[in-house]
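Why DegV family protein? Reviewers of the renewal asked for a concrete example.
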Amino acid sequence: MSYKIIVDSCGELTEEMKASGHFETASLQIDVAGHHIIDDETFDQKKFLKLVAESPECPKSSCPSPERYMEGYHCEEDRVYAVTLSAELSGSYNSAVLGKELYHEEYGEKDIYVFNSRSASVGETLIAMKIRECEEKGMAFEKVVETVEAYIREQDTYFVLETLDILRKNGRLTGVKAVVATVLNIKPVMGATEAGTICQLGQARGIKKALVKLVDEVVKNLKNPKEKVLAISHCNCRKRAEYVCDMLKAKAQFKDVVILDTAGISSMYAADGGVIVVV
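Here is what the prediction returned.
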């Protein structure tokens, strides 16, 4: 059976994934400083970060329309999966589900399933990889869905950012009560709850200590690392990502490691210098 995996653009794709023919990106869009940016292969991170730094206003994002998802489902492949960023953080999941309903009304039955990642960025990347792994093993559609949903429940997301301003101003930190003392250079270590909301796991003074604490949090919760892919995304800070990677590899063996630069939406929320770890 043929298959396609649609990942909204908060999830980064590796070059190998892009070349495989199995993956498609559903682009979100960003408005900042009077510029309307499509989060696709034309996204210029350096230019975007400069616009954000110079703009007094917070950038805003919008998710793909249901019609965009419906178009993605309307293809020659027999089975289609969509992976979206957490439904608690974006309307992308609901849009993808509505697109599925519209497709069925317009074209009839087809095997389509929408995964709520309960994560973002490389969390979505790993889920898309897991779908392909299941498909390549020849699993039945229902078994793919069951296996990947179980995988999502076991997945953990962590991140350290230079600033939480954009997350806070866009209402993505609902329920996070800790006050970060920016004057004292306190950096929070953040994570995702089982529901896909953002929580604070700890904090440290300075980015380097915060990254060490992030690694400690990952290791504390890590189970069966030899069976897992370690995924790290970073916004314009490859050396930080490699620093985190080296610390984690010194403490555990992983099945594989993926390091990616953030695309548009992830760059918007991670901001310059942000690091995201998913395992």
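The chain has two domains: 3-28+63-154, 157-278. This is the kind of structural detail the renewal will allow us to pursue systematically.
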